[in-house]
Write a structure and sequence with these properties.
Layout lengths: L2 E6 L4 E7 L6 E8 L3 H11 L2 E8 L11 H14 L5 E5 L3 H11 L4 H4 L2 H19 L3
Parallel strand pairs: 1-4, 4-5
Antiparallel strand pairs: 1-2, 2-3
Helix pairs in contact: 3-5
Length: 138
């Protein structure tokens, strides 16, 4: 069994998280500059066994797509062309940034560390992945 890779897509930075090979535990992987995202994913999926990619689906409170969905759709077209062998799922990502920030507070990170937006993105990707794992338990 391969890993599941989660993406918290942003126009500047993108947070990434992965599961273990048994697809039980979600862990933060890294944050990459979005302009380097596709080359990073191509390299990562060529060296690691990845069964699925999960991409956050940003929605407004009224369940409509957020403004960033336009950028994500463009990225998804590029992703499926570059890595067609790995299926892509979407997961509602509402509140993940707020939850990530609260997780940082709860874990005792100092105020300066909580300003690290890259860490927030990585934690958000982990929350997206954990949500996906929880909703797909049999």
């Amino acid at each position: 069994m391969g890993r599941i890779l989660a993406i918290d897509y942003g126009t500047k930075r993108t947070g990434l998280a992965v599961t273990d090979e048994m697809q039980i535990i979600a862990s933060g992987l890294t944050t990459v500059e979005t302009k380097e995202l596709l080359p990073f994913l191509i390299k990562y999926t060529s060296t690691e066994s990845v069964d699925k990619i999960v991409v956050g689906l940003p929605k407004q409170m009224d369940n409509t797509a957020s403004e960033s969905e336009v950028y994500i759709q463009k990225f998804l077209v590029q992703l499926t062309k570059a890595i067609p062998q790995i299926p892509v799922d979407r997961v509602d990502e509402r509140f993940t940034s707020k939850m990530a920030f609260q997780t940082m507070i709860d874990s005792g990170l100092k105020k300066k560390q909580r300003k690290n937006k890259a860490l927030v993105d990585e934690i958000s990707a982990t929350l997206i992945l954990q949500s996906y794992l929880s909703s797909n338990q049999f």
